[in-house]
């Protein structure tokens, strides 16, 4: 699981921002939101321009040089903070797999990685710095020539990626656990545009995916269970590319669905593919949802086994009926903190934390 993330000089984050998921409180309710002492599920709130989308993109920068999964133009466009255009962007990740802790740090400029370091249980395995590569573990022997080539390569090859591709590591090796985790990371959104990063290698047509996998009836049941909408679809044939509603001679689903229902279709598509996901973020997941629909969707999402977070403006979700104070985060002023850290008051089950939030009871 991801236990901590920090970034500096990325987009709107001029100073270092740290998101700590490893220090939940001891609340006795909604304990499923915590897994082995790490926050598993959460919601991130913040004013417009506070950095919710930038945080999501920053976390998923790791997939750019460590995987062949889907990249998105939003990840590649103007990543350096405009006030420090000549400084590198720094990323820090801490992962935990059972008793093993992996720290991964790298800095990059517009041309790629300039610094990189991996430590396992506090012991560095390698360190790339100023075009010099030090291999600090006997597990990864390299000749001076190879080290020099990696350190000075024009295409800025990741040392960690090189280790994955060259050394025959056991599937349960901590670095291979990290590889599986990173390849299982997914970020997606559906607001002013629709897109995703990580997890998959190609873009699929949503309705074609539903038809090809025999999910038409299941999709109709999904829409009814989460939103109360009843759609009856004509029987789909192999090769069909769109859903047809059983109305008169038939009406294409895309002609009658609302913007919110379109967003639900995207959500359904991804939930059907997340059995192997490790870490999921959905930016502005409920941009087109009724507040009650947002609540129902969250309950369904948080039952998934993966670590999963969403960003939202919908404070109706800020309820102890859904999560708990240490799983609701506020991002603002280059900081992100859980609600229980943003107040001196003791927060309990009976507190109306949404009312407290609207009354400015929390300070980041």
Layout of helices and strands, plus pairs?
Elements (H helix, E strand, L loop, with lengths): L1 E7 L8 E4 L13 E2 L2 E2 L1 E5 L6 H8 L2 H5 L6 H4 L12 E9 L2 E10 L2 E9 L2 E7 L2 E4 L8 H9 L6 H8 L7 H10 L1 E6 L3 E5 L7 H7 L3 H12 L16 E2 L5 E2 H4 L2 H13 L7 E5 L7 H11 L5 E5 L16 E5 L2 E4 L14 H6 L6
Parallel strand pairs: 5-16, 5-17, 11-15, 15-16
Antiparallel strand pairs: 1-2, 1-6, 3-4, 6-7, 7-8, 8-9, 9-10, 11-12, 13-14, 17-18
What does it look like?
- The protein is globular, with a radius of gyration of 22 Å.
- A hairpin with a 2-residue loop joins strand 6 and strand 7 (100-109).
- It has a 7-stranded antiparallel β-sheet with strand order 2-1-6-7-8-9-10.
- With 364 residues, it is of the alpha+beta class.
- It has helices at residues 52-59, 62-66, 73-76, 144-152, 159-166, 174-183, 206-212, 216-227, 253-256, 259-271, 291-301, 353-358; strands at 2-8, 17-20, 34-35, 38-39, 41-45, 89-97, 100-109, 112-120, 123-129, 132-135, 185-190, 194-198, 244-245, 251-252, 279-283, 307-311, 328-332, 335-338.
- The protein folds into 2 domains: 2-200 and 278-358, Rossmann fold (3-Layer(aba) Sandwich); 209-259, no CATH class.
